[in-house]
Design brief:
Layout lengths: L4 H21 L2 H15 L9 H24 L17 H20 L2 H12 L4 H8 L3 H24 L2
Helix pairs in contact: 1-2, 1-3, 2-3, 4-7, 5-7, 6-7
Length: 167
């Protein structure tokens, strides 16, 4: 019986994992990082993995989840840049509209949210921090972070709808 089913499965599947990661992430370096991250996350569990079949399933699933998380993190709205806006609209109306909406939401965030909610919203939605990281940084419980984040988003959504209803 193989003493290291995780190492054996990872070695055997490495090329397939890299290919899968490349398809999801669209970048060679990110794909390599993702499979290395998956292996590092599974390594502490190596003594609990029964056989190579289980190790293979865990390796593929963990790698896929890491890739999906990275795609989601990249797709988060990080910062508005008017130069990136689609300039194919000759009149510039679309660009102005997007810029106006961005500024409106930014003003709502500054005006309607508490300092704590602004900070949590910035760390989560603009900088891509995980809930647990934010909780550690702010010395709060993760549930309190989630609640504040939810309330902040709800406040912005409601205030934005009110502003648009008046237009």
């Amino acid at each position: 019986m193989n003493q290291e089913p995780l190492l054996s499965a990872f070695t055997r599947l490495r090329d397939n994992l890299l290919s899968m990661s490349r398809r999801i992430l669209q970048d060679e370096d990110d794909a390599s990082d993702a499979i290395q991250d998956a292996f590092c996350r599974l390594w502490p569990l190596r003594n609990k993995i029964k056989d190579e079949k289980e190790a293979s399933a865990l390796t593929v699933t963990t790698t896929r989840h890491i890739c999906i998380d990275r795609v989601r993190q990249k797709s988060r709205f990080t910062e508005y840049d008017p130069e990136v806006c689609d300039e194919s609209d000759e009149s510039g109306n679309e660009k102005e509209y997007v810029e106006e909406r961005f500024l409106m939401v930014k003003q709502l965030i500054d005006k309607e949210l508490t300092e704590n909610q602004r900070l949590i919203l910035e760390l989560r939605d603009f900088r891509g921090f995980e809930i647990d990281e934010i909780a550690r940084q702010l010395n709060m419980q993760p549930t309190a972070i989630r609640m504040n984040l939810s309330r902040a988003r709800k406040t912005i959504r409601e205030q934005y709808k009110k502003l648009n209803a008046n237009d």
